[in-house]
Amino acid sequence: MPKNFNTIKRYLTDEEKFEEALLEYNCERFVQIKPVYIYPEGYHEFTPEEMEHDDEITQKIYEAEMNDDKAEADRLRELLTPIGPMPIINIEKTLELIPIEDRQYFIDELNKDSYEETVIMKCLKCDFEEEAPYDIIEECWMDGPYPIGYCPHCDKPKFVPLDIYNKKKKK
Ligand SMILES: [Zn+2]
What's the pTM? Predict the structure, then answer.
């Protein structure tokens, strides 16, 4: 279907491509290959207390957003435990754990220009906006010149790609 709106394309890093390939590969195996990670300086392992604390805060942020209290949501976000740098998969070391006859699959995946595609959706009714994976939006796109979904904020069937939103609001 031709697109009357822009999407955002981001090319995956080698580490992301490799991790995705490993997920796929593990789906078809009884014995899972566990990836080897590199833990960057400043890496922080979450304690159970921190996870519980963050869950509570996240719930409160959700409630504040539902009440359109942006200031409170921003204040609460400051209370979340800083995530810090994420561990990075060690491609070379992980590849060594994979049976030799299966390694070519990973090398082929690394050679692909894989990307993720997203689209910013905005509600014509309440202005709520959210970046969503394009394949999910496309799946719900039945017919017509552009996809329309239900807004996660006000529940009205008025959720459209940002470009369409801008076009309609200009009129
Ligand atoms: Zn809405």
Answer: 0.70
